[in-house]
């Protein structure tokens, strides 16, 4: 069974956000606005995405 992939794009600035939300976005590998990364759909990654979902756009790949 293959792991699902998610394309995550940062669409809002991280400045002025809660520190743990910033850490979640950084943990996903995002640094700049409009930068995208493809991550595995693991429970850990989904948790980080859910925490900062208002800053992110998520698509299934």
Task: Offer a few descriptive terms.
single chain; 61 residues; alpha+beta; Ribosomal Protein L30, Chain: A; 30% helix; globular
Task: Write a brief caption for the model.
The chain has 61 residues and is an alpha+beta fold.
What layout of secondary structure does this protein have?
Elements: E1 5-10, H1 19-27, E2 36-40, H2 43-51, E3 56-60
Antiparallel strand pairs: 1-2, 1-3
Order of helices and strands: EHEHE
Fraction of residues in helix: 25-40%
The profile of the biggest β sheet is: 3 strands, antiparallel
Mean pLDDT: 95
Radius of gyration: 11 Å
Determine the CATH superfamily: Ribosomal protein L30/L7
**Total beta strands:** 3
Q: What's the N-to-C terminus distance?
A: 16 Å
- In CATH, the topology is named Ribosomal Protein L30, Chain: A
- Top CATH class: Alpha Beta
Low-confidence stretches: none
Q: Which descriptor suits the 3D outline? A: globular
User: In the CATH hierarchy, what is the architecture at level 2?
Assistant: 2-Layer Sandwich
Would you kindly provide a written description of the structure presented here, covering whatever features stand out?
There is one protein chain. The chain is of the alpha+beta class and 61 residues long. It has helices at 19-27, 43-51, and strands at 5-10, 36-40, 56-60. The protein has a three-stranded antiparallel β-sheet with strand order 2-1-3, with no helix packed on it.
């Amino acid at each position: 069974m293959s792991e699902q992939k998610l394309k995550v794009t940062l669409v809002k600035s991280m400045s002025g956000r809660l520190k743990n939300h910033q850490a979640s976005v950084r943990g996903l590998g995002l640094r700049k606005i409009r930068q995208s990364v493809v991550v595995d759909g693991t429970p850990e990654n989904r948790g980080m995405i859910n925490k900062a979902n208002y800053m992110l756009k998520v698509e299934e790949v």
